[in-house]
Design a protein that fits this description.
204 residues, mainly alpha, Arc Repressor Mutant, subunit A, Tetracycline Repressor, domain 2, 2 domains, 0% strand
């Protein structure tokens, strides 16, 4: 029988594995509503998800990695870069979504992830690789397009520009000196993109 005519065969264990993985991530999210990352135990996740510890360790090296994956799957769809008529508007809308998401349970979770990373550099590296770098790469593409179109300053340092837009969000999240409220979500992105624009928009 040729490969073209052979019936498709799928690994018998794959659907079950994906079901187990989904259960683990959903259980982790649910448990984090009542306990902190520091107090979360792999044994508890396994028991509540109805899986063995070996199943969890097949995919994740530690509990922080599970929490990061759960955070990633929850947050990424809610913080997409929906293209707007201008690069500045695209960045403003996405940054505002980040503020809204982090002003709640997800913000508390990511703060705990970053705290865990202070004693375990591997946690920070996993967070950067899973979430931060991919988000920054998309933002960099949008800023580069803005430079090429003449919307942004021609000699702009893209990495610094990204920090200018998003850095204050993480600052407020971690320091807690001011809230991640609606006013901040609307004001910060507008001021930050004005700072990198070639022709800043006039005040309303």
């Amino acid at each position: 029988m040729s490969l073209a005519s052979a019936p498709e065969k799928r690994p018998s264990g794959r659907p079950r594995c994906q079901t187990a993985r989904k259960a683990i991530l959903e259980t982790t999210v649910r448990l984090l509503e009542h306990v902190t990352l520091q107090n979360l135990a792999i044994e508890c996740i396994a028991r509540e998800a109805g899986v063995g510890k070996a199943t969890i360790y097949r995919w994740w090296p530690n509990k922080a990695a599970i929490v990061i994956d759960a955070f990633f799957e929850e947050v990424v769809p809610r913080t997409s870069f929906d293209r707007a008529p201008t690069a500045a508007e695209t960045l403003q809308r996405q940054a505002a979504r980040i503020v809204k998401v982090l002003n709640g349970r997800q913000g508390r979770v990511v703060a705990q992830i970053l705290a865990e990373g202070q004693s375990d550099p591997g946690v920070l590296e996993y967070f950067r690789s899973m979430f931060l770098r991919t988000r920054r790469a998309v933002a960099a593409e949008i800023i580069q397009a803005g430079i090429e179109s003449g919307e942004f300053l021609p000699d702009l340092d893209i990495e610094v520009a990204i920090d200018l837009i998003y850095g204050p969000i993480w600052y407020r999240l971690l320091v807690g000196h001011q809230p991640l409220d609606r006013h901040f979500a609307e004001t910060l992105p507008r001021l930050a993109t004005a700072a990198i624009s070639r022709h800043p928009a006039p005040r309303a």
